Amino acid sequence: MSLSPIEKAKRAAAHAASEAFIRSGLRIGVGSGSTVKYLVDYLKEQYGSGELKEILCIPTSFMTRKWLIDSNLPVSDLEKTPELDVCIDGADEVDPSLNCIKGGGGCLTQEKIVQNAAKKFVVIADSNKKAKFLGEKYKAVPIEILPFGYVATQRFIQQKVGGECEMRLGPKFFPTITDNGNYLVDWKFPESSVATDWAFINQQILSIPGVVETGLFLNVAETVYFATPEGEVDIVSKK
Ligand SMILES: O=C[C@H](O)[C@H](O)[C@H](O)COP(=O)(O)O
């Protein structure tokens, strides 16, 4: 099957990062999203051929867990494997300091827990995700909130940090339900936020009762692999 240019870019990023970071014996956090699917394909190929041995894959979502199981890869979890060697994940936007916005695909809390359990966090993305500053192109921060009091929680967010909260809806206008049984809100931040301190804003949001986690992954990525459809890979590492 021939891939579209964007899919070729995602695959190139996933393969380049995998070749650099995946080794036999590693405990690997496996992120979520369409770019990560190419990481799973890489693991399947390498493990299936015997090139890669004794790995453990720790998924960050139901979907990723299913992909791993369907690929006959050894799946573990943070109960059995609480410490990981590396976590590889996608992102919706990445700034020059490697801060990321994540959660566009609906996964962020389990991703953040798995990322936090890993010694290294590596991001894979097509080069369109590269931004001059956080919030340049991706105009919302996904936030996971508890269903209880969800309207009040959105109001608290708006009162505290401005902008507007939009419930992520699925088919038939049902709320999108996260892997943890919660709701997902896209916080459309005010333009003034992009010039301010995202770490401070993140703390403000996290302090609101009802907020579970945000899609702001600040100061955690060690290396980001950006790729183009032509297979050119730009590797940016933390300074
Ligand atoms: O919610 C999903 C995750 O945070 C993804 O890693 C992120 O949205 C990027 O997904 P994709 O690789 O599909 O662009």
UniProtKB/TrEMBL annotation:
Pathway: Carbohydrate degradation; pentose phosphate pathway; D-ribose 5-phosphate from D-ribulose 5-phosphate (non-oxidative stage): step 1/1. It catalyses: aldehydo-D-ribose 5-phosphate = D-ribulose 5-phosphate. InterPro entries: NagB/RpiA_transferase-like, Ribose5P_isomerase_type_A. Keywords: Isomerase. One of its GO terms (biological process) is D-ribose metabolic process. The keyword Isomerase applies. One of its GO terms (molecular function) is ribose-5-phosphate isomerase activity. It comes from the Eukaryota. One of its GO terms (cellular component) is cytoplasm. Its EC number is 5.3.1.6. Belongs to the ribose 5-phosphate isomerase family. This is ribose-5-phosphate isomerase. It comes from Acrobeloides nanus.
